[in-house]
Design goal:
Chains A, B: Residues 9-112 form the HTH hxlR-type domain. The structure is a homodimer. The first copy, chain A, is α+β, with helices and mostly antiparallel strands. Chain A has one domain: Winged helix-like DNA-binding domain superfamily/Winged helix DNA-binding domain (Arc Repressor Mutant, subunit A, Orthogonal Bundle), CATH 1.10.10. Chain A contains five helices and three strands; from the N terminus they run ααβααββα. Chain A has helices spanning 6-23, 28-35, 42-48, 54-66, 94-114; strands at 40-41, 70-75, 81-86. Chain A has a three-stranded antiparallel sheet with strand order 1-3-2. In chain A, a hairpin with a 5-residue loop joins β2 and β3. Chains A and B meet through α1, α2 and α5 of A and α1, α2 and α5 of B.
Chain lengths: 115, 115
């Protein structure tokens, strides 16, 4: 890994920090990824995000809503139905998800080759 | 966000899950990013990864070493010096860091515009 100019690197590091501050952590990207197929209800998101508790999912959805990635819609028929969907702003994460998916596939192939 | 074919999406979701399993969480990418400038000692990494405790950093470095992203070198002069550097395998994260940095810069501009 070639050593980069410090100023260039510091600004890149800050930008990476900013990104990870908003979408880092164990669950955020996984919850967003689960909604990329289309809108879902709470328990549908929980089922796809294997291992997440209801309390943690509820907090993650609140933060994602506050940061403008997720829209919460309450359908007032009986029984009331609450649905979550991605906002247009979440589309800006497209390249990042692509890079994550490509790296994940590459990493999985590497692990398989090493077995 | 157009609804994608479920099989294509499931395999992408699994790949994203695999990636986040290895490099997700609050600190991994930030610790790797801090080493992209070149090798560093423990306290140098801790200083750049603002907010990380010594105990957490020590665990993260052990996991990153185990997963093949970081190499630990012990220089046996007196006093002993321990240095960490990225492996060639960590280079495969280049596109991901680029996508993260670009998104972080875009997000920061959006936040500034909204103030």
């Amino acid at each position: 890994m070639a050593e980069r100019s410090t100023t260039e690197c510091t600004s890149k590091l800050n930008a990476i920090d900013d990104a990870l501050y908003v979408i880092g952590g164990k669950w955020k990207l996984r919850v967003i990824a689960s909604l990329r197929e289309g809108h879902k209800r709470f328990n549908e998101i929980q089922r796809v995000s294997v291992g997440i508790s209801a309390r943690v999912l509820s907090n993650e959805l609140k933060e994602l809503e506050m940061n403008g990635f997720v829209k919460r819609t309450v359908h007032t028929q009986t029984p009331v139905v609450v649905e979550y969907q991605l906002t247009d702003y979440a589309d800006t994460l497209g390249d990042l998800f692509l890079a994550l998916a490509e790296w994940g596939e590459m990493h999985r192939d590497k692990i398989r080759r090493e077995r």
